[in-house]
Amino acid sequence: MRIIFCKKKWGRIVFFLILSGCTFAIRTPVTPVRPTVKPHIFRGVFHAHTQYSHDSKASLDFVIKTARQADLDFVVVTDHNNMNGLEPYRQMKAPDRPLLIFGTEFSTWHEGHLTGIGIKQAPPDIEKTQEVVDLFHKEGGYAVISHPLSRRKPWPTWELKDFDGIEVFTFSDIFYADGIALLPKALFFPPKVFLESVLKNRSFPALQLWSDQLNSGRHIAAYGATDAHLKFEWHGLTIENYLLLFQSVTTYALADELKEEKIIEALGHGKSFIAFEVWGLAQDFTFTASQEGENFKMGDTIPVGVPVTFSVSAPKKAEIRLIRDGRVIETKNVSDLKVQTSQRGVYRVEVYENGTIWIISNPIYVE
User: CA-to-CA distance for 17 and 34, rounded, in angstroms?
Assistant: First the structure.
């Protein structure tokens, strides 16, 4: 009996290793490590699940260890319908960096998933989604629509008022939804090549949803979500490469210091940008504006009537697109771009590397 048990045990181990393939077996960083850490800009990931979600087994220690490997300053943890990891995190005497920030991904009754950040506790089981948003706001938090085009949990209606953000990219929509199609790549590609093959020339339909909401006159921040889970674990063996998930999309927050309230405020007000750093380190990206000697950043509002100069700086020569109200008004293959205009509108930037999207800014509003 013992021999049969051992054979089954080793058979399972071999099975998991085969399933893991190159992409998941190689657990080394695939995106660049920052040569220096710049002040007032913090590198992190948004939307990660821990062992306090019903469908993830990642311990808090494991999340912190992975964030360190990925050279992250913060991780926004959004466990399903709870914030049960917050108190254990406070008690574990964790390092200041990486900082874990706790919100929750709430399962609404009639829509999809709604993420709350900057809140004190997970909401009760409320039927009306608008009441959930109002509760988030009452606690000083922000409501973000999760994976709006997910095959499993799409967002069916846009009648909701006053939500603050939308995920314009969610890696789980690719990683889990297209799992069978991606398996051959996972078996034979190393992690960096795998990520490049998955993201190369990919369209971002949720960008249009976001643009439509911005054109309605609302201020809405864009988020890039890993939606990282660790679904399978057996005697320390894991199939998913949690590090790979953390490096699928990066969020940069512009804040005075690495404190929970400062990072949340930056994310909530759109003082942030998204980057797919498999195409290159993005911390040197800037998108600013100036008017009569006053400087503005992403998330800011500028009064219309006086000319505004928009300045974009990419970390390297790339295709920079300046967009107003959803339409490209200037595009050049450069590392720096300046455009002056007096027109009102919602201005944002997309940067492309060899035809593939690399960086997505949040808007500057002229109104």
Answer: 31
User: Tokens 């990891």 label which residue?
Assistant: 85
Phi/psi for 95 (5° steps) reads: -65, 160
Question: Which neighbouring-strand residues pair with 48?
Answer: 77, 228
Rounded to 5 degrees, what are φ and ψ at 151?
-65, -30
In the chain, where are the structural domains located? Answer: 2-283, 284-367
Q: State the Cα–Cα distance between residues 232 and 141, nearest whole angstrom.
A: 32
Residues 6+ positions from 60 with CB-CB distance below 8 Å: 50, 51, 85, 88, 89, 92, 94, 100
CATH of 284-367, one of 3.40.50.2000, 3.40.1190.10, 2.60.40.10, 2.115.10.20: 2.60.40.10
Is residue 166 within 8 Å of 144, Cβ to Cβ? Answer: yes
Distance CA 212, CA 203 (A): 16
pLDDT digits (tens, 9 = 90+) for 239-264: 778 999 999 999 999 999 999 999 99
pTM above 0.85, yes or no: yes
How distant is the alpha carbon of residue 128 from its chain centre?
A: 26
- Spatial distance between the Cα atoms of 25 and 41, rounded to a whole number of angstroms: 32
Task: List the structure tokens of 62.
Answer: 């494991």
Q: pLDDT tens, 133-179? A: 999 999 999 999 999 999 888 999 888 989 999 999 999 888 776 66
Is-contact 229 52, C-beta < 8 A?
A: no
